Amino acid sequence: MNSIKLVFLTMIFLGLNLSLFAQDEMMNKEELMAQRAEKAAELAKVQGELAAIDGKIESIPGWRIGGVGVIGADFNSNNNWYALTSPNASSTGLGIGFNGFANNIQEKFFWRNLLNVTVQRTVTKQDKTDPVGIVALSEGLDLSSLYGYRINPKLAISAEAKFTTSIVNYDAERTVGDRYRLSFLNPAKLTASAGVTWTPLDALVVIVHPLGYELNFPSQEFISAPGAKIGAQYAAKLFKGISWSSNLSAFLPYSGGDATYTDFNGVEVVIPYTTGGLVNYTWINGFSAKIFNGIGVALNIGLRGDNQIADRAIYSLADSTTGEVNIGGLKLQSYYTLGLGYTF
What CA–CA distance (Å, rounded) separates 297 from 282? Predict the structure, then answer.
């Protein structure tokens, strides 16, 4: 009997201890949660103060310089994968790109400069024994400089010079010498324009220039024309550590003209372009996510519509057997590079 009482008292003692321990644990958790809420409120206050300070720093007149560089590579290979039409196909790709800006922002004027460079090479082989494979090359240099004198904080009288050019091309038909050749100014365009610039937000710049002229190279092949230049530039942080920059540029010509192309037989063909047929645009986007000390993941996407460039390329790539080409229509050209990036 005494043993039963001893066991019973022991169980009551253990139960009381466990109950007191659980109460202590609950009190500790509630205290810690309260401390956490207090610290979170203090952190939110400090972050708000830091954001306000950053805003003041950004509003100080002077130069602002930054950019994102990206390098991306991809490799695909199949070995006797007979579910495919080409069981031993392979492809490799390497792309590099850079988006940079240098802006001088003052109370009465601004001077905004943008630079974009991209070179992306992809090689596709139907069989690994192919000596070269099919090479695709996306490349270009885009440089613009915008100056504006402020009428008020949001509106300015402005002028811009914009230059775009090819850098290098690949000649698959060339059997002697290097197939890569410099193609500076072939093709290229220089656009000068003037009008007004609207800055509704610090991160957004809208350009409307009704006075403009687009000079295309080579001049003996491409049409140059007067017209209106419109565009927009945007740069901001989407989330913590993730940034987005976007540059849209479009030219609306006031007149058309005739362009001369050489077909696959070496015969010159004259193609008439209406005013609408010479409309062209370029839209470049860059995304970057920081991981450590400026290093992170970056994505560059470029979209372009330009009838003259597309039609010239189509003639040079026309089927030499049938001679079929597809001229006309604003054809979409695009590229993208995804890889490691460095933001500064």
Answer: 24
Q: How open is the CA angle 107-111-112, to the nearest 5 degrees?
A: 125
Max Cα separation, the chain? 119
**Whether residue 131 has pLDDT greater than 90:** no
How far does the chain reach from its first CA to its final CA, in angstroms? 82
Contact (CB, 8 A) for 341 and 288: yes
| Of the residues 60, 88, 106, the one at which a domain ends | 60
How far apart, in whole angstroms, are the C-alpha atoms of residue 289 and residue 343?
A: 9
Specify whether the CB–CB gap between 121 and 136 falls below 8 A.
yes
Q: Which domain holds residue 11?
A: 1-60
Show the tokens assigned to 174.
Answer: 């060339």
Pairing type for strands 62-77 and 332-343 reads antiparallel
* Residue pLDDT, tens place only, 248-261: 999 999 998 888 77
Do 193 and 112 lie in one domain? The reply is: yes
Residue that terminates a domain, selected from 39, 60, 81: 60
Please say if the pLDDT value at position 307 is more than 80: yes
* pLDDT the model gives residue 22: 56
What are 139-179's pLDDT values in tens digits? Answer: 789 999 999 999 999 999 999 999 999 888 776 666 666 67
Q: Amino acid identity of 268?
A: E
Cα distance between residue 279 and residue 197, in whole Å: 21
- Determine the average pLDDT of the residues in 32-54: 76
Residues 36 and 161 occupy one common structural domain: no
Report the alpha-carbon distance of residue 258 to residue 47 in Å, rounded: 60
